[in-house]
Specification:
mainly alpha; elongated
């Protein structure tokens, strides 16, 4: 029985292996000539056996600057979300709610259908949760009421507790202000442009592979007819590459220009910070003066 089982499993594995080979052969067989030429050119470049068209240094510097800005904005957005909501579980809940809310307004009917099956969400709750200042204020106020007015610390507990409850409400207003006027516009600024740039850079890479593959065929042509045909292909690929290069450069230049607008969002963040701390300082100063009486 054991021997039969081993033979059976061996036969099954061979059948699966054979099917895998058939699937792979079908994939290779269905691959377009252009796709095959791209793959060949790419692999030869990796091995150092092919000539590669290099982009000009200004374009490379522009692309690197835009990519560096995109990376820094992404990291700053993540840090800003952590700053607004340090609690990881609450942060994940807010991100989920935001995603579902955005999906409900999607132009894709499939996405809307999936979102409709999820319990109704109303966006982020980032400014609706009770803050730690409010929690501490509630405990201090309740403690002061339990102690009573018979000793001095009772009323002091109540006053400080009420102050921290007010601070908590002020903190929620501040969080809402930062979220709406800094975090959302800062995180969303240029996201469509960055997405388009990524797609256009990918198309430029493919156009460059097509051009270099065509040039390689010219160098390998053995007859005048093949040479003429391959040279015509090079001209077509060169024209396609030039068009894609200009399109990508336009998007990169526009994104680089608009990156200055991130400063406006940072100004909003500082304004929110200043307003919050000024009002908080005023509340605490009044409470401190009352405690000293």
């Amino acid at each position: 029985t054991l021997l039969y089982t081993i033979k059976f499993e061996a036969n099954l594995n061979m059948e699966e292996f054979g099917q895998s080979l058939k699937d792979m052969a079908g994939t290779v067989g269905s691959m377009s000539i252009k796709g095959f030429d791209r793959a060949k050119q790419f692999s030869q470049e990796k091995m150092g056996n092919a000539v590669k068209t290099e982009l000009d240094q200004d374009f490379i510097a522009l692309s690197a600057r835009v990519e560096e800005t995109r990376s820094c904005v992404s990291k700053t957005s993540t840090a800003a979300r952590n700053f607004l909501q340090p609690n990881a579980a609450a942060r994940l809940e807010d991100m989920f709610n935001e995603t579902v809310t955005a999906a409900e307004a999607s132009t894709n009917p499939n996405v809307r259908d999936i979102a409709a099956k999820i319990p109704i969400r109303k966006g982020s709750n980032i400014d609706k949760r009770q803050t730690y200042s409010e929690l501490m204020g509630h405990i201090m106020k309740t403690s002061g009421q339990q102690i009573g007015d018979s000793i001095k610390c009772g009323p002091s507990f109540v006053e400080v507790g009420e102050t921290f409850q007010k601070l908590g409400m002020l903190e929620r207003e501040y969080i809402r202000d930062v979220y709406n006027n800094f975090f959302k516009p800062f995180s969303n600024h240029l996201q469509v442009e960055y997405s388009n740039i990524t797609a256009e850079k990918r198309r430029l890479d493919l156009a460059r592979l097509d051009l270099d593959a065509a040039k390689s065929k010219v160098r390998g042509a053995r007859t005048p007819e093949a040479m003429q045909q391959n040279e015509q292909k090079v001209r077509e690929c060169q024209a396609a590459f030039d068009r894609q290069y200009e399109q990508t450069k336009i998007l990169l230049t526009e994104a680089d220009r608009k990156s200055d607008e991130f400063t406006c969002h940072l100004e909003e963040f500082i304004r929110s910070q200043m307003n919050y701390h000024e009002q908080a300082h005023k509340m605490l100063s009044e409470t401190h003066a009352n405690l000293k009486k």
